[in-house]
Amino acid sequence: MEEIKLDISRVYNFISKEEIKNLENETLQAQKTLYEGSGDGSGFLGWLRLPSEITEQQIELIEEVAQGITPNTDILVVIGIGGSYLGARAVNDALANNFSHLLKGAKPPQMLFAGHNIGEDYMHELLELLDDYNYSIVVISKSGTTTEPALAFRILKDHLVEKIGKEEAGKRIVAVTDAERGALRQLADEEGYKSFVIPDNVGGRFSVFTPVGLIPLAICGVNIRQLIEGAKEMSQRCSPDTLFEENPAAQYAATRNALYRSGKKIEIMVNYHNKLHFVSEWWKQLYGESEGKEGKGIFPASVDNSTDLHSMGQYIQEGERILFETVISVEKANHQIKVPANEANLDQLNYLASDPIDHVNKMAELGTILAHLDGGVPNIRISLPMLNAFYLGQLLYFFENACGISGYMLGINPFNQPGVEAYKKNMFALLEKPGFEKETAQIKSRR
Ligand code: PA5
Q1: Ligand 1 in contact with 142 (CB < 6 A)?
Q2: Hey, where are the domains in the chain?
Q3: For a designed S-S bond to 208, which of 135, 213, 228, 437 qualifies (C-beta 3.0 to 4.6 A apart)?
Q4: pTM tops 0.90, yes or no
Q5: Angle between the 389-410 and 248-261 helix axes, to the nearest 10 degrees?
Q6: Residue 199 Cα, ligand 1 centroid: separation in angstroms?
Q7: Does the domain spanning 5-41+228-410 belong to CATH 3.90.226.10?
Q8: C-alpha–C-alpha distance, residues 324 and 320, integer Å
Q9: Residue 127 half-sphere exposure toward CB, CA atoms < 13 A
Q10: 289 lines ligand 1 (CB under 6 A)
Q11: What CATH class has 50-226?
Q12: Half-sphere exposure at residue 50, Cβ-oriented, CA atoms within 13 angstroms
């Protein structure tokens, strides 16, 4: 069977094979901490075995609810922020047609987002659009109290009720939240919305294989069984029973930590496939929120190539030498278009005639990797046989598993996010939220 492959051979000019091998014990110790649940944040390890533990009954329930929503829905508005929306967006964008919103004829519901920003114009334009479409809402918040999604849900719920009436609106809203706590749970119970639970022991950024990711994806036509199957397959490959050299998560965690310790402080996730933009955004949140703590952590950045070769390419080639790259490469395009021959050849492209466009893309990829290596940027490469739900499931689980190991190698708790609270405290003080009177008085002098 074809599978995702990790190639670390292009880091050996910067750190030797031995340096990575020397991290074997440390990596396996971090992996042991993860699997035994003996480290900090061990209450949040539900994601680790999730792909094998999810039951047929749970999948059927998600599919059943999705089947009830899909036929009446042109647009699915997913309300959530951070880990509560990025997983669904990453998978949906990777699999949906680039122009699906403009395609004629029957098509799955389009996934749009709200509550991931506080843009007033964004909300206005979304409401204007929704006036003209049949839409449903999946509102996702583990805490049930996050300001951005709560604000968006308040507005969109009112809009939907006004548009189709309370009873019908109630059938078009699905809530995904904590089993017992939080305002959203209370609201869902009181209003009788269909609801799903985010398990207590799964943090937002590790929740893509829970209903957080699965319910919006199922409504929008993604084969969630294949996604889970891919994750399950990868969870077997990443298990502690696999040898260090053959375990992709352990190898990735060891390599990026070896690079970090050699002064490479920034990891750039690079793709050569525009549909992977939000996979990088999901990855940035996963690694940024998990690792950036206590003055430590690799800074996760991303570029979409070849687009960004014409913007960030200069810096990557010749700027500060604190970078390494991880390229996600899709081996085989799902469609083929060959470069046409042209008699006049004014654009001088006849040397490419009959080549598939993807061949040009692959040579841009290889040429860039080699140029960046010459410029002092080590390269890790992850190749996917093709873009489908199965390989995406593999990829996302691989990153989650490696993140847990890597976080423990850094010596931090990969499963909390204490730093996220600082802005909230200031924002609430500035907004004069009840209960923040002392902070409001303090912050006024800084305005
Ligand atoms: O990964 C995380 O834990 C965060 O990004 C959360 O998902 C995000 O802050 C949203 O939180 P909540 O789901 O409680 O609204």
Answers
A1: yes
A2: 5-41+228-410, 50-226
A3: 213
A4: yes
A5: 50
A6: 13
A7: no
A8: 11
A9: 19
A10: yes
A11: alpha beta
A12: 32
